[in-house]
Design a protein that fits this description.
The protein is α/β, with parallel strands linked by helices and 310 residues long. Helices cover 37% and strands 22% of the residues. The longest helix is centred in the N-terminal third of the chain and has 17 residues. The protein is globular and about 50 Å long. The relative contact order is 0.12.
């Protein structure tokens, strides 16, 4: 590919960013400041976050998206803020640096709980710092990978931490190193807890089936107590772990889960797995569509909620 075509491809991606479309000059200035920051230091960049929170972000792709547009995934943030209520419990699997952990901790308040899982040794300290910096006492962090067993696995660490994952069956190129990380299943972890899980967010770069296999006890619960799932759907990433997208969807169907795609603004649409997916999307799995819609479309979700505890 020529240098000119590479430039035009990058320019096209830049112009398509939501913040660029909204205010070109502001977006351009923020990108300039981002580059200047990393010319002067390698320390994570502490920036204002939502609802008077702060977040420390590293020099990564996901970190830059948080800096530029507020969240690495705008629809994920929108869904969580519409769904979560005070007193609820969120499990954040693949918590990374904690943007959604922080967001959820405020949304569920002092009477709610957030349980975050992040196995990367270079990222977990930043996640911990972000929780401590905001004095969030309703968050429990675990430096473990969630899988289908208790033990340990090899974990591939990439220069871009957001694409690091449990070692795939397909040989990967570009991994900086392999490390051993501890694993736990959701069923085993939650057997030690005494509250209902309302929402589980899963972002594990293709290892989603392992997470679901380790949560069949939770998935078998009745609609009134079974958790709702928000998970990444990527047939190509699943294939790297040796399974088909239909394997995961059939597992959900086995426990009477229905799957939808989130469209934003509290709207969901039926998901048709026969239509090829060209990019990673987020899907929602739940047992009761009416309850799900009632949460997403309630006017109360637009109220500002802030929670910190010294």
């Amino acid at each position: 590919m020529s240098q000119e075509s590479v430039f035009h491809k990058r320019l096209k991606r830049f112009l398509a960013r939501p913040d660029v479309k909204e205010n070109f000059m502001k977006a351009f200035a923020k990108r300039l400041l981002w580059r200047l920051h990393w010319l002067t230091t390698k320390r994570p960049y502490v920036i204002p976050f939502k609802n008077n929170l702060k977040i420390s972000i590293p020099k990564t792709g996901s970190g830059s998206l948080i800096y530029y547009q507020g969240y690495s995934e705008l629809e994920t943030a929108d869904f969580m803020m519409r769904f979560l209520r005070p007193g609820m419990t969120l499990v954040d699997i693949g918590a990374h640096i904690g943007e959604y952990t922080l967001l959820a901790a405020q949304a569920v308040g002092a009477s709610g709980q957030v349980h975050g899982f992040e196995p990367q040794p270079g990222i977990f300290p930043i996640l911990s710092e972000n929780v401590q910096m905001n004095n969030l006492c309703n968050v429990t962090l675990n430096c473990k990978a969630v899988s289908n067993h208790i033990g340990e696995v090899e974990f591939e660490v990439f220069a871009e931490p957001s694409v690091s994952s449990i070692r795939k069956q397909v040989a990967s190129s570009g991994a900086e190193k392999l490390v051993k990380v501890a694993t736990i299943s959701l069923d085993a972890y939650w057997s030690q807890q005494d509250t209902k899980i309302d929402l589980i967010k899963v972002d594990v770069e293709g290892a989603e089936k392992l997470v679901f296999q380790g949560a069949e006890g939770l998935m078998s619960l009745p609609p009134s107590t079974a958790p709702v799932w928000l998970f990444e759907y990527s047939p190509s990433a699943y294939a790297d772990f040796g399974y088909l997208a239909s394997d995961l969807l059939n597992l959900l169907s086995k426990y009477n889960y229905h799957v939808w795609q989130y469209e934003g603004d509290g709207k969901i649409t039926d998901f048709d797995s026969r239509i090829p997916v060209k990019q990673i999307i987020n899907l929602i799995a739940a047992k009761d569509k009416n309850d799900l819609l009632n949460l997403l479309q309630s006017e109360s979700v637009h109220e500002e909620r802030a929670y910190t505890s010294v």
